Backbone:
């Protein structure tokens, strides 16, 4: 206690808690997605609606597969952060915690399923 | 206690009292598009998982996504993702301390909506 400064005691006690770190992570993922999303739209879009054999052959090529894999992974990390802000604004109390945990589970489950699927197509 | 009167306090007037403005509307739509894109993301994950599973599973997922209803979802998804991507880039520019004046911000928002519409038309025509 003797070594605690006033600043140290106040840190993290504001309403924003760890908001700066959250914002920084959203910035990092949004920079990544600013590049990935156009690449994904035009790679996925060009094979969207094609027959099964063509889709499998297309995603055995490294470039479309890497774009899809990174877009799914980073996209769900970005969603996980964004939806948390949405929930924090409109849901309160225990329901808020339950909703945030449920959305984190959904995000990582969907990301894992998507990444595994693209990897097994590519390999 | 601070929480003794939770839920029973008068709220400051917000959404209902302001006229719609470019700055607020573009912000609200950034949130709506970003969170609504979970539907698209889950559909695309389903499509990839089905493709990795086999031809029958792929036929089911692809059949839904390329149906008229799936196409409708995908059309709104393309519009939503272009809009949200441009909005994200606008946030990155704001975060660097640029384009924060009200008039610049409004012009920027209008330009963003226009570019999103043009990119959506371009994407739908090309793909």
Residues:
């Amino acid at each position: 206690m003797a070594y605690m400064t006033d600043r140290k005691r106040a840190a993290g006690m504001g309403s924003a808690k760890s908001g700066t770190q959250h914002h920084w992570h959203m910035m990092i993922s949004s920079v990544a997605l600013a590049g990935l999303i156009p690449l994904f739209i035009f790679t996925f879009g060009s094979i969207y609606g094609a027959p099964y054999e063509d889709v499998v052959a297309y995603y055995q090529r490294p470039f479309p597969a890497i774009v899809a894999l990174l877009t799914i992974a980073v996209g769900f990390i970005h969603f996980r952060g964004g939806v948390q802000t949405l929930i924090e604004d409109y849901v309160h109390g225990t329901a808020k915690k339950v909703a945030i945990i449920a959305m984190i589970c959904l995000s990582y489950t969907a990301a894992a399923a998507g990444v595994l699927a693209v990897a097994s197509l590519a390999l | 206690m601070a929480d003794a009167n939770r839920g029973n306090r008068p709220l400051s007037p917000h959404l209902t009292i302001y006229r719609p403005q470019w700055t607020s509307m573009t912000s609200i739509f950034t949130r709506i598009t970003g969170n609504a894109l979970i539907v698209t993301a889950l559909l695309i994950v389903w499509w990839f998982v089905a493709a990795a599973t086999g031809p029958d599973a792929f036929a089911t997922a692809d059949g839904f996504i390329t149906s008229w209803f799936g196409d409708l979802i995908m059309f709104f998804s393309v519009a939503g993702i272009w809009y949200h991507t441009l909005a994200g880039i606008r946030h990155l520019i704001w975060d660097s301390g640029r384009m924060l004046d009200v008039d610049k911000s409004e012009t920027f928002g209008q330009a963003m909506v226009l570019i999103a519409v043009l990119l959506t038309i371009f994407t739908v025509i090309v793909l």
